[in-house]
UniProtKB/TrEMBL annotation:
Pfam families for the chain: Peptidase_S9
Matches recorded under InterPro entries: AB_hydrolase_fold, Peptidase_S9_cat, Plant_Biomass_Hydrol_Est
Coiled coil: 40-74
Name of this protein: Prolyl oligopeptidase family protein
Source organism of the structure: Roseimaritima ulvae
Domain of life: Bacteria
GO process annotations (BP): proteolysis
Length: 687
């Protein structure tokens, strides 16, 4: 007993010290360490060997690309991931220990094996069980991104049987860039490998808690895996531990209709309380930062777990138990009791007994599978970026970053739906073929209670009754509703101008969750300070996109932007109307006035000699895509030190005073900032 207690005490000390390693010394914005750190300097012989092998692999890849063979083109990312990983390791000193040299050699060797096989028209890894690393080309920036798989021995590569798939999100690893990630996925099964289950390990574009481009990486990796393996759509789960637990919480509450279960462990579930308790950080957020926390603070979305079975795990003496405690309290407010498995006297790891309990529960839930058509859907959001749960999609909000909630219930006795709505202006309901139980002879009855929940309980809400379309003969049903002048109507409201919608709702960071092109100015800005600042911010974005989101940004001169770029990409414009031709072409259609003398937004005017705008707005040349002025993703170097800090720092627009130099927190002094309203018009800066 004394020995067991001593071990527990030592583990507590180790993980407490590890926790405080992210503590006060990482709370100094003026002294930010590099993430990832600078790696070791290779000796000449090792560098020559790795460089030579890399060049040989790149030559093979070029030859495969030139063949333009359909199968080779489809599978080329499975080879390119090895080349790109080592390329970046060498170019940016991202081998951090001597052991990483051996990892790089194995990564290159596997790349050669695959290139040679593909040149013969073979792809043995596509029918391989066990540990397999695959790659896909991301739509965001055309880079190849890796992911790992565990393919069970029971998987049959021919036949109708579909398999359960578990997404497993890795923990924080500042040194786990591509080479290290790929090596680990070739050599380690991971914490869980359930029987007859495919386990998918997303890279998540490095260390961002599977947010922003990391979030899209998960979705793209899953979609790619679906094209390669037979996966049961109704038996996909989301799981993770530590930083991966944080990623699991956010994916679960934002995409509750995708999974049959969620299993988060440790991590964090919101920003402010975690940073106060775990990081010991004194927070002084701006009003818009508080608003923007609602993008990833899972506590505000806790009610969404009503429709997603969730098994949380924490070590009893793990400081990151705080994440599940916060969610437990938030769920209690929703009258939901969280299943919280706690490892006895356990620090930051998963207790073996707890693993058994969790696996039994997950297996039981997998047998049941996802409920395709829950009788009640309860869904909350603060942004149309996250707007869907099962058969309910919110298509219009009264005001972004304020709570929007729908409780949609199939009538217990009847052919219709009861809707309880808050903060919503438009809604789409859709039941897939074979799932609508309404009588096909009659119009569906739709009863609406429009108002906050507290007012519904008091009977102080607008009540309305409509009759929607009849079900179709395949037992599918869909219906659109919109609110106008306080009344709900059937159908879609015809747009009379710009509207915020899913994928076109801001803030600035949203532009980097889809394909984007950086547009480089070919001229000089009107003022030296603006010219120097915009050039610096552009280069910073290019450098940090590679470093933090592991991508190669697509860069064009303003004179090189194509019609295809305008049609398919968000344009990230740096400079001013004098230096950047694209800005010049559209500036009179943006909600600003920007001349050589002054910059005006709303009723505020600034000296253009030392002020510049950052902004996101629908592209006047293609309102289905964004333009962004003078900004990359808005969190900066200070946020790299703790994943809970990696949240949007700026809203839809801001004015920057360039007389205050850019630093690890801000691009300069933010003198004004705000959100556009639902029509992309200027509103009050503080709502």
């Amino acid at each position: 007993m004394r020995y067991t207690c001593l071990i527990s005490l030592c583990l507590l000390l180790v993980f407490t010290l590890r926790g405080f390693a992210d503590g006060p010394k990482d709370n100094v914005p003026d002294n930010v360490r590099s993430v990832p750190p600078l790696g070791i300097e290779l000796d000449a012989e090792t560098n020559e060997f790795l460089t030579d092998e890399l060049q040989k692999l790149q030559t093979k890849i070029a030859a495969l690309r030139s063949r333009k063979h359909e199968i080779a083109a489809e599978l080329l990312p499975d080879v390119e991931i090895f080349s790109r990983a080592v390329r970046d390791s060498l170019a940016h000193r991202e081998l951090f220990a001597k052991g990483d040299i051996a990892k790089a050699k194995q990564v290159l060797a596997t790349g050669h094996e695959r290139a040679d096989a593909l040149s013969r028209g073979e792809a043995p890894w596509t029918t391989q069980t066990g540990l397999v690393v695959r790659g896909f080309r991301s739509r965001i920036d055309d880079t190849v991104q890796p992911y790992g798989l565990v393919i069970p021995d029971s998987y049959a590569f021919h036949g109708p049987v579909e398999h359960r798939l578990d997404l497993w999100f890795h923990g924080r690893g500042e040194r786990s860039v591509e080479t290290q990630f790929i090596f680990e996925r070739m050599n380690k099964v991971g914490r869980y490998a359930p029987a007859d289950t495919i386990v998918l390990h997303p890279f998540g574009r490095y260390s961002n808690a599977f947010k922003f481009a990391g979030e899209i990486d998960v979705l793209e990796a899953l979609q790619h895996a679906k094209t390669q393996y037979r996966i049961d759509e109704d038996r996909i789960s989301v799981r993770g531990f530590s930083m991966g637990g944080a990623g699991c919480w956010q994916m679960a509450v934002h995409y509750p209709g995708m999974f049959f279960a969620a299993n988060p462990g440790a991590g964090f579930s919101e920003t402010p309380e975690f940073l106060r308790t775990f990081q010991g950080e004194t927070l002084q957020p701006t009003w818009y930062e508080r608003k923007l926390w609602q993008m990833y603070d899972c506590t505000g979305y806790a009610g969404n777990l009503r429709n997603l079975p969730t098994i949380a795990y924490s070590g009893e003496i793990d400081r990151q138990k705080q994440a599940a405690d916060m969610m437990e309290a938030a769920l209690r407010q929703e009258r939901i009791r969280l299943t919280h498995v706690i490892g006895p006297q356990t620090a930051h790891t998963i207790h073996p007994d707890s693993m058994e309990v969790i696996e039994r529960k997950m297996d039981s839930l997998a047998e049941m599978g996802r409920d395709v058509l829950p009788r009640v859907v309860d869904f909350t959001t603060y942004s149309l970026r996250y707007n869907r749960s099962f058969w309910v999609t919110i298509t219009g909000m009264k005001q972004h970053w304020e709570k929007a909630r729908v409780i949609a219930a199939l009538q217990q006795h009847g052919d219709g739906v009861l809707l309880q709505l808050e903060g919503i202006n438009a809604l789409h309901l859709e039941m897939p073929a074979g799932h609508c139980s309404f009588n096909p002879r009659y119009a569906a009855k739709i009863e609406i209670l429009d108002g906050p929940r507290r007012e519904v309980q008091k009977g102080e809400v607008v009540k309305q009754e409509l009759y929607g379309p009849r079900p179709e003969s395949d037992r599918s049903w869909s219906c659109d509703l919109y609110r106008e002048n306080g009344q709900w109507k059937l159908g879609k409201k015809e747009p009379t101008g710009l509207r915020k919608r899913h994928g076109l709702q801001g803030p600035i960071d949203d532009a980097f969750m889809d394909r984007f092109v950086i547009v480089k100015p070919s001229g000089k800005a009107n003022h030296a300070a603006v010219n120097a600042w915009s050039q610096s911010e552009m280069q910073r974005m290019i450098d940090q996109w590679r470093k933090q989101f592991r991508g190669d940004a697509i860069v064009r001169l303003d004179s090189e932007v194509t019609a295809e770029d305008i049609e398919h990409s968000n344009l990230i414009l740096f400079g001013d109307p004098s230096s950047n031709q694209v800005i010049k072409d559209i500036v009179d259609k943006l909600p600003i006035e920007w001349s050589a003398e002054q910059l005006s937004i709303g009723d505020k005017t600034f000296d253009a000699a030392h002020h510049a705008p950052v902004m996101i707005y629908p592209n006047p040349q293609n309102p289905q895509r964004y333009v962004v002025l003078n900004s990359g993703f808005t969190y900066r170097e200070y946020a790299y030190l703790n994943n809970a800090r990696q949240v949007p720092k700026l809203p839809d627009w801001a004015v920057i005073d360039l007389r205050q130099p850019a630093d690890a927190l801000w691009p300069g002094k933010v003198v004004e900032a705000g959100f556009f309203d639902e029509s992309w018009k200027l509103g009050d800066a503080d709502y």
